[in-house]
Design a protein that fits this description.
4 helices, nine-stranded mixed sheet, 396 residues, Copper amine oxidase N-terminal domain-containing protein, signal, seven-stranded mixed sheet, 10% helix, 2 domains
């Protein structure tokens, strides 16, 4: 089973810094392997990958974005019927990340439905328009859902449909969730961004197969407590987007360097509020937060830069045995666009496996260039996922 105990890995993931750094250099054979590889391919770099690569100093600041809600605490819903999240939002844009599992196994494993409902709590009809919509069938293949879901979210375009909800009425955010049968240990994974023009309440609940979301919302009153043994967090957060840039220009002559974000140390977890208790909430992992990354670089020695990543947490525990990600990257050797990482297989496992994201060519006159990335911590994978910039000889 591909299951993730986020709490376990994040404790380990908080200890990634070291005062020692290593000037990693590729062998000629490794240089050639990177240049011959397809985008998104796994390249084996024996003896090269380490968490002690020199880290790129960066600055970040929040940028305007939607109200952000995540439902991932408890990750596993262990009782047949319950509310896993209940949050209120104000008129405007909302990003909603659904990450819950049917965890009912006592007295026996049973099929369930996990549905996300939105209720109009205003005094006038509410219009809801979907800006980004990702719906996936429930599965025990968490890595697949996380990687493909993030890639689909980055590529999603606004819908022209506008739904009208009467005051006091409620409808499913994703109507497909009403039809899905969620078996034991299957993950319900949804990624949405939408506009509402009235105050609203969002509720995630688990119920039986015969009960509609609307009826379940009327009947179910028990809200599961947060801060359980599994899950990154739940609640309402005011930060949903970050801009990240390096404070020192990367120069290929200085060797390999690594950008490490979403580590909980240099890049702290976002803080919000849990609606049912009113208590402070922390999103361990910053899952669903979108990072707009711009990295300035130059080449004073004529080399290019290969951008790679790897599963740096594979040794932590059994839940970190694989990593699957997706991101949008600017043009280089390959066209700009969204790439699943890895592309031709589900996950990358551990060193010496690196995944090639892009290769950037130096400017003819050595001028500065800008690498642009859209990154979000990959759901179902352990963090951090270092972004490593490796000088490569393009004419070996």
């Amino acid at each position: 089973m591909m299951r993730l105990n986020k709490t376990a890995f994040l404790i380990a993931g908080a200890c990634i810094l070291s005062t020692k750094t290593f000037a990693q250099q590729l062998t000629k054979a490794q240089n050639q392997d990177l240049l011959k590889a397809n985008q998104g391919a796994i390249v084996k770099l024996d003896g090269f990958l380490t968490e002690k690569i020199t880290q790129i100093p960066f600055q970040k600041y929040p940028t305007p974005g939607p109200q952000y809600i995540i439902s991932d605490d408890p990750e596993y819903i262990r009782v047949p019927e319950a509310i896993a999240l209940k949050e209120s939002v104000v008129p405007g844009a909302v990003r909603f990340y659904l990450y819950n599992v049917n965890g009912v196994k006592e007295p026996k494993q049973i099929d369930r439905k996990i549905i996300a409902m939105i209720k109009n709590t205003g005094k006038a009809p509410m219009r809801i328009k979907m800006l980004k919509y990702v719906s996936q069938a429930p599965s025990t293949n968490y890595f697949k859902l996380g990687k493909e879901g993030l890639a689909s979210f980055l590529a999603a375009q606004p819908s022209e449909e506008v739904r009208i909800i009467k005051p006091g009425d409620a409808v499913p955010i994703d109507e497909k969730l009403e039809k899905y049968i969620v078996k034991y240990d299957e993950l319900v994974h949804g990624f949405y961004e939408f506009l509402v023009d009235q105050p609203a309440e969002i509720t995630v609940l688990q119920t039986d197969l015969k009960t509609s979301g609307k009826d379940a919302l009327k009947r179910i009153t028990n809200v599961l407590p947060p801060k359980t043994k599994s899950g990154a967090g739940r609640g309402l957060y005011g930060v949903s987007n970050y801009h990240v840039s390096n404070t020192t220009v990367i120069d290929t002559k200085n060797g390999t360097s690594s950008l490490v974000i979403a580590d909980g140390v240099n890049d702290p977890w976002i803080i919000g509020r849990e609606g049912t208790t009113g208590q402070q909430a922390k999103l361990a992992g910053n899952y669903g937060v979108i990072y707009d990354v711009e990295l300035k670089w130059k080449s004073t020695d004529g080399k290019g830069l290969a951008l790679i990543t790897w599963n740096s947490r594979s040794a932590d525990n059994q839940w970190c045995s694989g990593m699957a990600a997706a991101m949008k990257v600017s043009e280089g050797k390959f066209k700009d666009g969204i790439i699943q990482l890895p592309k031709d297989q589900l996950v990358t496992k551990a060193a010496p496996e690196a995944v090639l994201i892009q290769v950037f060519k130096p400017a003819a006159n050595g001028e500065e260039q800008t690498i642009k990335l859209t990154y979000s911590p990959p759901g179902a994978s352990c963090l951090p996922t270092p972004l490593i910039l490796v000088p490569v000889d393009l004419n070996p």
